[in-house]
Every structure is written in structure tokens, then in C-alpha cells.
Amino acid sequence: MRWRAVLIGCFLIPVNCYWVAMAEIVYYTLHATVLSLFFNAIATLLFLSLVNSLLRKFRLNLSRGELLTIYIMLCIATSLCAHDMMQILMSLLGYPRWFATTENQWESKILPFLPSWLVVKDKEVLIGMYLGGSSFLPYLKYFLPHLLAWGTFALLLLWSFHCLNQIFKDQWIKAERLSFPIAQVPLELTSEGGAIFKNKLFWIAFAFSGSLDIWHGLHFFFPYFPDFNTRWDIGPYIRTPPWNAIGWTPLCFYPFAIGLAYFIPLDLAFSSWFFYLFWKFQLVFRSALGVEPMPGPYQSAQSSGAWIGIGLVAIWGARKHIKSLIQRGQIKPFLGLIGGFVSLVVFCYLAGLAIWVGVSFFVIYFIIAVAVARMRGELGPPTHDLYYAGPDWLLTTLFGTKVFGAQNLATISLLYWITRDYRNHPIAHQLEAMKIGEQVEGINGGKLWFIFCLAGSLGFVSAYFVYLHIFYGWGVGAKLQRFGVGLAAETFNRLDRWLSAPVGTDAPSTRQFSLGLGLTFFLFFLKRLFPFFPFHPVGYATAGSWTMSWLWFSIFLSWLAKGIILKQGGLKTYRNAIPFFLGLIIGEYAIGSLWSVIGIVFRKEVYGFFI
Q1: Is the model's pLDDT at 326 over the cut of 90?
Q2: What is the mean pLDDT of residues 211-222?
Q3: Separation in Å, CA 575 to CA 93, 245, 262
Q4: Packing angle between helix 448-474 and helix 3-21, nearest 10 degrees?
């Protein structure tokens, strides 16, 4: 590991945090960090690779290991500042105090249960944040305790994820030789000698997908410029009962998604679009029978059972490996995990969470984290989201809200920034970094924790100040309603309902959760019994979600193309076609990223290549 790569990564992390924040929060035209492959990290890697080819003439070029070290640092930092982590956390800091009124009685109902070192309770500090047109610097001292507290919590999470990956990585990378489809993209992009940039198929696909985004982008700026639609919703055209229960059903053509799906196993690609239609079939079938709709948005109750099932199966499948590690005395990862787990529970205990609730919460959370890591290592789905169905939802669904009390429910609500969804989960990017380190010289596996810690710390601090700057400059209540207000409203309005009307076990959701868990176990059993069984549990777990709704048709097209290539040309043709599908990804990511940069520079909304 060369220090110049680390220094370049440190310089680029704040720039990338600002880029992501402006594109996804201020102008709200791009939602690309919900994807498994981060657009900003790939675009930066592409730019550095092209510059590197020029530096090679003067022998100042970066090595492949250095390029990928920078990429890893950007991924770790982005996983924290992205859609489902700090973009939510920053909205939680002031929301309960700002929106406390005489009518909702939050000053007596909610605020007393929220520790002042985790949320802002001085309304004067929040005026500039919600109205905008000011600077956060005069109020910086009020935010530093929260930065220290939540930053410590984030580092404890990263440490725990690192230890989890240390336990499983040899089993998954060396013994089972999982394919790591997402990691193949940066590996191919930095192939020795820049081989990918000399391939004609790569540039043909790059030109196709890039031109498509240029065309759409020009139409966005100049509406009179002719355009053609590549995103449809077929739901409104289906009006006959019970078929109209299908609801919102996007049909989208995304070149980057076609390219990404080419790298995932054929059975997962099939399962992803098949189970999406299976979810829709459930809606139609229940409507035909006159049964009430499934509880939870995006079929989250069933999906939660599926995710827990995947995590449990992954742990069970590695039991012999875990036993072997313990017998050989390689217990440092276990001790580290226990230390991280206990520290997180103690942190939450100091915030007001009962020990038994904290233990239950993080046991479920880490099972979900293992599921995310396994999904990404084995099958690399283009996205993996689990809306509103994390440990907070599961505990209150199975046991009701009465047993927890106001203090526990309030503290759980503050953890919404790690439980709302799992699309940009740091554990997946850490595991892929370990895979890259196994294949590329110059990325020392023993020093990866240092990279994770440095990139995570700098990413958290950078994002914290970037979001404060944006919130005070633009105004959470004025411009940033969606992320500054909407996401925080979800958890605190839910807390208000919990406290106003405590309930017992949610029987319908529990049944759906059990169905998802049972079906996942059954699919794993069939998959193990019949290796060529086409239905993969991961496809079932990820298909019933908002993000997959946008991607399923593109995955279908990729599955169809890959199946034809393998059947007609075999493995050799499949490998020869890799540059073409890589070009589809890079072309759309490059031009889409360029549009977002243009929007930031000229302070305009621009075309977003995804959603």
C-alpha cells in the first residue's frame, strides 16, 4: 500500500461526499447510491484510469493496487454518506424539536426520552437549518457533541462489520469461491495495461449507453428537442379486476442494469424478474379472493422473513469453518465482534435502551448484515433493499409496542438511519474490498482495516459538515423537504403512533414474516437438493422492493441475452462479450455522472440516469 494512493483517496472523499449530497438531496435528480455499484466511485475510477494512461509516459502512473485502494476508500465513505445512512441521520438531529407543537405534545411525549447528546433540543439553533439562507458555523459548537457521539457509533459499526467479514471471508472467497459480480467491474476497469480500453466492443457499448443519456439530457434542457421514452408504467393500462391489483409496475430500459445483470449468475437473474412477477401475482390472487392486501409497503413483511432466512442459512453454512477457526486459535475476529457488539449495546444503553432490547436489536441487525454480505458475495444483485422491516419493525411486530415502553421506543426511533433500508450497507463494500485485495497485488489484507477506519472517519466527518452546510444554506423546510423532513417524519410520526396507541402482536405481519422465512428455507433446501433448480432465494428476497421495481425488466433483458450467448456460443463467447456489457455500465455511469456535475456547477436540475 503506497501512501500517495491513501492521500489521493483522502482528498477525493470530501469532494465525493459533496457530489453525492448535491446530486441526491439538493437537486433530487439522481438516486444512484441505492444501487450496489456506486456511480461516483466508478466515474472517479474511470477518470483516474484515463489520466493514469497519460502519466504512464512519464512513469508517474498509479499501480492497479493504488487505483483500487482509492476506489475502496470512496466506496466506504460513500456507503456512509449515501441514501440510507447519513442522509437520514442528519434529518433526525433537529426534527423532533422543530416540529414539537402544543397540538402534538411532543415536548412532553417524545423529547424527554431523547438524549441531548444525540439530538438538538435548542430551537434557536435550528432556525437557520430549517429556513435556510445562513451558515452553520455560528452554531458549530452545538453540533460537535452529536458528531462525536454518532461518529463513534458509526466506527463501532464499521469495526463490527469488519470482524464479521473476517470470520466469513476465507470460507466465501477461498473455499466456496463466490463470484463477487459487483467487484468484477472495478477489477475489469483496471485490468493490466488498460486492456479494456483497447476493446472495440467496450467502446461500442459505451457509445450506445452514453449517447442514450446525452440524448435524454438534451431533451431535459430543451423540451422541444425530440425524445423517446425508455421508462413506462403499465399499471394504469390494466383496469380490469382483479388484474388491476397489480398496481404500479414500471417497465424500464436501463443499459447499466443490463450490464450489471450480465455479471450475476443466470439463476439469480431469472429469479429476480420471476419473483418480481410472483409478488405481483400475489396481489392479483389476493384481490381475486377478496383478501385484504399484504401488510407493509413493498411486501416488506415477507421480505423481512426472507432476509433473516438468508442470514441464518449463511451462518449455518459456515459453521464448520467457524468451528475450525476456533479450534486453530484464530479467535481475534470473534473477540473483535464481541467487543463491537457489546460497545454498541452499551452505547444504546447510555442513550436509554434497555440491555435486553439492545441485544435483541443488534442480533437481528447483524443477521441482516450477514445476509447482505452473502448476497453481494455470491450473487451480486444490482440492488438489495428491505424497506421498513429491520429489527425495529420485527421486534415491535412480534412482541407489540406495549412491552417496550416510551424510552425504548424513542431510542429505537433514533436508530432509523441504520434500519430504514440496506441498499448501501457498508459490510458489502468491505467484503468486496477483501475480495479485491485477494486478487490484486498492493492491497494488503492486513491493512484494510486501517483503510476502512480512515475512509469511514473522513467520510463521516465530511458528510456531516457537507450536510450541515447544505441544510443551513438551502433550508430543510424550504428546499429539502424530502430528505430534510420526510425521512425523519417517518420514524417520529411512527413513534407518536406507538406512544399514543400501544398495541400487541401484529398477527397479519407475523404470518407474512413466517411465510417469507419458511419459503426461503424451502427454496434453499430445493437448491441444495437440485443444483440446477432455477429459483434462487436471494431473488425472492430482493424482488419485492421499490428499487427492484425499476430494474426488473432490464434484468430480464440481460438474462435473455446471457442465456442466448451461453447456449449458442458457450463460455468462450460469454467471456468475449464481457467488454460489451461492461461498456453499457461505464457509458451510462460516465455520462450520467457528467450530467450531475454539470447540474452542480451551473446550479440546475439535470437529467438523472436512474429513476
Answers
A1: yes
A2: 95
A3: 49, 42, 11
A4: 30
